[in-house]
Amino acid sequence: MRIVIAEDSAVIRAGLAEILADHGHEVVAAVGNAEDLLAAVDEHEPDVTVVDVRMPPHFTDEGLRAAIAIRRDHPKTGVLVFSQYIETRYAADLLGAASGGSAAGVGYLLKDRVADVGEFVEALSRVAAGGTALDPEVVTQLLGASRRTGGLGSLTAREHDVLALMAEGRSNGAIAGILVISERAVEKHIGNIFSKLGLAPSDADHRRVLAVLRYLES
Amino acid sequence: MDSADPVTGQQARPAVPSAPADAWRGTFTPPVAPPVLPSPVRHDRIWFQQTTRKLLRAPFTRDTRRQVEYAALGLLLAIPGFVFIVVAVTVGLGMSLSFAGMLAGVPLLMAALLGARRLGAVHRRLAGRLLGVQIAPPPPLPQETGVLGRARAVLTDPVGWRACGYLLLKLLVAVIGAIIVVYLLVWGFPYLTFPIWWEILHANGVAIHVPGWLAWWKPDPLVAAGAVHSLAVSFALIPVGVAALLYCPWWLKGCNDWDAKLMARLLGPPMGHRVRELEQTRARAVDDSAARLRRIERDLHDGAQAQMVAVAMKLGLAREKLGGTVTGITEAELERALELVDAAHRSAKEAIIELRDLARGIHPPVLDHGLGTALTTLAAHSDVPVELVIDVPERPSAAIETIAYFCAAELLTNVAKHSGARHATLEVVHVPGLLRVRVSDDGCGGARIEARGGLAGLAERVRTVDGKLSVSSPPRGPTVVTVELPSHA
């Protein structure tokens, strides 16, 4: 993969570059602010970018706004937003922007997740390939928010687990592995979820996620 | 003027019997709150010992000396102040009754009010210096242009009129205080040594009378018709003398406290002004603490948190390298893993240092041992050699200590960063009611309180506890920054 990293903390930037290089990926640019990020994406047209939310000069959501701009202007470039805190609103903004475009290649992860290097690189690959990677934290927050409003009351506990994993961007096989059930059972649960939520099932992973999230946002 | 003496004279005397009782109730609190102990006997004894010690020591403390100085200087100032106000105000008002007289009367009245403001400030400073009673200065006179505008501003200045009131009452308080003190001393010493006098006077056939207020105490035949008849009775008067002398400092303190209350009412800022000021300082305090929390969050986010993410990344990568044990690890992979663990180790240590600095920045633990210890440590870490002068016999409240510490820290940092000084002095003095932190250096000078600057931020923080910061920094130095804080906030 060809990757652009935007992260203002030098230690984390260097660490990320090291990990990705170690896994055989090419970091074409590593920058420290949103403006440089947009320029680098224009120049290199990378497969995927890793973007910190908080960057100079105001340290608020510069990275997020840049990520949304990249989604709009470079639909082929995946965007993995990377942050020390999870903000539900940021996730909603990002996914809202994604669904307006080609609806693919979005991720939102806590920085902590990078500690599990293999999983992190896998999530990044998923985003680069047009899939989705949402932090379990994001999913919990979104599900929690929607449960409070009573939207998912009709789901069973198991269906809830499956939905959460789906929202993270997992495939049926992965969900079956994690929950230690057969892939057929997963398919059955998903079918139930979709019918309970009134959604038609679809093949592509990210479509399922976005469908679920669109429901959660409403 | 003619009416002044009889007025005070007449009022002072009837006030005598009741005033000491009031003053006593108002000011004398048991010196030490009785400690809670299992045995009531012991607790009574300790309380008794401490009270006795305090009573016996009272006449000789530094505090008492200051009270005496205050009362004496106050009386000396009060007499001309009273005369000035009475004369200037009555003559000024009297002349203003006629239209022509106003030309002279109004300026005279203005002079009286402006003078009262000034004299009030002198009294306020005296109380601050000697009694440790800090009274905030009243708001300055509103700036008006033109003769009429200025006249109106002065004549309607509530601060000036209240100061007039104070100057009139001050003489009353000072005279009452002085009369009783003199009275106690004049009777106290002779009573203490009564047997000697009795011997001498009796031998010369002089009858000695006890004063009228002791007349209830004349159980015949010891004291007949108020006269002391025998040596035995003269011995009995010694405790009366002792009591009179020991009571003296308490009475004086009572009078001065009374004076201070009057001052707070009449020489301080008017209530409305104070409320506005408190609203402002509260808003500043809230902003300041929010800003500080934001800064701490930023420091954590950019510092230790990022470091720990880096540590986790490196360890994660190293774990991957070492994870392939089943298939065997190559030499190169092992070496790479070792390098990564090494780097993670270094980052972790850096994160620890960052966390420690940050924690110390929130509250230096050494401050728990008192300002002196904390500042000694601070001065030792300074890049510029610092001479320390610390005189803090009593600890101010914790909040004040913290602010004083951070002021000193920031001022010393400024010295090291901006002044180019070779030498700095940090002076911290605590007198009753007031903690003063002063940092002076022999650097290039030119320091100013600028909007959004470091000194302005410091001044704001100091103002939240009613303190003040002043800067004296001519070009080419030396720079002296003084922070004055109330002992308790």
Task: Please outline what is shown here.
With 218 residues, chain A is α/β, with parallel strands linked by helices. Chain A contains 10 helices and 6 strands. Chain A folds into 2 domains: 2-133, Rossmann fold, CATH 3.40.50.2300; 139-217, Rossmann fold (3-Layer(aba) Sandwich), CATH 3.40.50.2300.
Characterization of this structure:
The complex is a heterodimer of chains A (218) and B (489). Chain A has 218 residues and is of the alpha/beta class. Chain A folds into two domains: 132 residues, Rossmann fold; 79 residues, Response regulator (Rossmann fold, 3-Layer(aba) Sandwich), CATH 3.40.50.2300. A six-stranded parallel sheet of chain A has the order 2-1-3-4-5-6, with helices on both faces. In chain A, helix 3 runs parallel beside helix 4 and helix 8 crosses helix 9. The longest helix of chain A has 15 residues. Chain A starts with a strand and ends with a helix. With 489 residues, chain B is an alpha+beta fold. Chain B has three domains: 269 residues, no CATH class; 75 residues; 120 residues, Heat Shock Protein 90. In chain B, the strands form two sheets. Chain B has a five-stranded mixed sheet, with helices on one face. In chain B, strands 1-3-2 form a three-stranded antiparallel sheet. In chain B, helix 3 packs antiparallel against helix 4 and helix 12 packs antiparallel against helix 13. Chain B starts with a helix and ends with a strand. At the A-B interface, helix 1 and helix 5 of A face helix 9 of B.
SSE order and pairing:
The complex is a heterodimer of chains A (218) and B (489).
Chain A: E1 2-6, H1 10-22, E2 26-31, H2 34-44, E3 48-52, H3 62-73, E4 78-83, H4 88-100, E5 106-110, H5 117-128, E6 132-134, H6 136-148, H7 157-168, H8 172-179, H9 183-197, H10 205-217
Parallel strand pairs in A: 1-2, 1-3, 3-4, 4-5, 5-6
Chain B: H1 4-27, H2 40-57, H3 62-95, H4 102-131, H5 147-155, H6 158-192, H7 194-203, E1 208-209, E2 223-224, E3 227-228, H8 231-266, H9 271-323, H10 331-362, H11 371-381, E4 386-391, H12 398-419, E5 424-431, E6 434-441, H13 454-463, E7 468-472, E8 479-486
Parallel strand pairs in B: 4-5
Antiparallel strand pairs in B: 1-3, 2-3, 5-6, 6-8, 7-8
Helix pairs in contact in B: 1-6, 1-8, 3-4, 3-6, 3-8, 4-6, 6-8, 7-8, 9-10, 11-12, 12-13
